[in-house]
Design brief:
Order of helices and strands: HHHEEEEEEEH
CATH architecture of the largest domain: Roll
Helix content: 40-55%
Radius of gyration: 28 Å
Number of domains: 2
Low-confidence stretches: none
């Protein structure tokens, strides 16, 4: 529907401009040329600014996730996975610590660490500005947060 609206407006505009610039051409020829040019322009404009259904579904899912994570205490955080840094939101849920990556990449999933699996929480030994969460499986999860002492205390309260 949007395509046809853009096409009609462009056809009228190009016909008017073409007749003004080339008054010797018959109006019928100018109209046909204007239709062809406006068809291509309208197709380009609508395909350039169109949003697919999967993109809309991803946006709706992200909004629902954002609402879910905003109900629990949390803050923006970076999760360090080797040399890779993932930007996201760290949240203290009642039963688990969840890191939600703020990315539209489908392969990035939430990192869920149940409090029963956490052995130790403290300041990272390599970088004193990060917190380190050690889990029972031997993995160390490194996060950078705004107020690290508050987060360490908050996680220790849940243990």
């Amino acid at each position: 529907m949007v395509f046809f609206g853009i096409w009609i407006v462009l056809t009228a505009f190009i016909t008017f401009m073409g007749y003004g610039l080339f008054p010797d051409n018959p109006i019928f020829t100018t109209g046909i040329i204007a239709c062809l040019i406006s068809w291509c322009a309208a197709l380009g404009i609508t395909s350039l600014f169109s949003v697919s259904k999967t993109e809309l579904d991803n946006l709706r899912k992200e909004d629902a996730n954002r609402a879910k994570y905003n109900r629990h205490p949390g803050c923006n955080a970076n999760h360090y996975k080797g040399v890779e840094v993932v930007i996201g939101r760290l949240c203290l849920f009642p039963e688990e610590l969840i890191f939600h990556p703020l990315s539209f990449k489908e392969e990035l999933e939430d990192l869920v660490i149940p409090y029963t699996d956490i052995i130790d929480v403290g300041v990272d030994e390599e970088n004193k500005h990060h917190i380190c969460v050690e889990s029972r499986d031997g993995r160390k999860h490194i996060f950078s947060v705004a107020d690290k002492e508050k987060w360490i205390n908050g996680i220790n309260e849940k243990l």
